[in-house]
Amino acid sequence: MPHSAAIVLIPARMASTRLPGKPLADINGVPMIVHVWRRAVEADLGRVVVATDEPAIADAVREAGGEAALTRPDHLNGTSRIDEALAALDPDERAGIVVNVQGDLPTIEPETVRAALRPLDDPDVDIGTIAAEIVREEEKDSPSVVKVVGTPIGPRRLRALYFTRATAPFGDGPLFHHIGLYAYRRAALRRYMGLAPAHLETRERLEQLRALEAGMRIDVAVVDAVPLGVDTPEDLERARTILRQSEPVKA
Predict the structure, then answer these.
(1) For the structural domain made of 1-106, what CATH number should be given?
(2) SS3 state at 2
(3) For residue range 104-124, what is the model confidence (pLDDT) as tens digits?
(4) What is the pLDDT at residue 4?
(5) For residue 199, how many other CB atoms are within 10 A of its CB?
(6) What's the pTM value of the predicted model, to 2 decimals?
(7) Among 179, 11, 188, CA closest to 95
(8) Backbone angles phi, psi at 174, to 5 degrees
(9) Which CATH code, of 3.90.550.10, 3.40.30.10, 1.10.1040.20, 3.40.50.1370, is assigned to 116-229?
(10) Angle, CA of 75, 78 and 81, to the nearest 5°
């Protein structure tokens, strides 16, 4: 059943150095952003809206039967974009939870989207997010793979202490790959947007550290696998193959 207090927002923009026009990239006859929108709808959390500054992206979503909101072009990140869209879409603040789904995850499982909300079962948690255990050795040392350092607080649940591009924590035990999908309490998103960029955020180039440095609590649900993020032409081909294989066979 949909979470009556949740709204799912998908920020999308055309600018991409490695894959220009990424949201409209064709995946088996459907724009990538429409695949992401469909997966978010299947998560069954509530209203789903694509937030974009590009009319062509909005048109593609609407043609598929979805909802889109146009935002300013000068946002520095997706969090800022969804904050603007939220104010316009829900001025009466009926949605108490805001889920931010990246627009380049066309193969994401609906259950993976739902998992980000689980940490908010605890009223002391400000922001919920997700991570998966790293199984490939080369990812443990890769700065492009963001690791969450957290203390276990229950089955498949961590309280985030730090996020880093370094290999951490030291010693025996699993390492966790952070997946940048967030569920914010509305008050937490408002507080976050009022904060200035923080020291460690700037150094690591990880905006979630702004919340931790301000004393906000982020808890992490552990999921089975990292969804494919499409950043390159090679990623796009992988997404086409994955989604082609998952499509039902026509009689």
Answers:
(1) 3.90.550.10
(2) coil
(3) 999 999 999 999 999 999 999
(4) 47
(5) 10
(6) 0.92
(7) 188
(8) -70, 155
(9) 3.90.550.10
(10) 55
Flag whether pLDDT at 14 surpasses 90: no
Phi and psi at 157, nearest 5°, equal -145, 135
Residue 177 reports pLDDT greater than 60: yes
What residue spans define the domains of the chain?
A: 1-106, 116-229
Tokens 């950043």 belong to 231
The predicted model gives 211-230 an average pLDDT of 96
Q: Which of 150, 138, 135, 163 is nearest to 221 (CA)?
A: 150
Nearest CA among 54, 49, 52, 81 for reference residue 64: 49
Measured between its terminal Cα atoms, the distance across the chain in Å is 31
pLDDT of 247 over the 80 cut: no
Beta strands in 22-135 (DSSP E): 26-27, 30-31, 47-52, 67-70, 97-100, 127-133
Q: Is there a common fold for 1-106 and 116-229?
A: yes
* Cα–Cα dist 1/170, whole Å: 41
Looking at the predicted structure, is the pLDDT value of residue 101 above 60?
yes
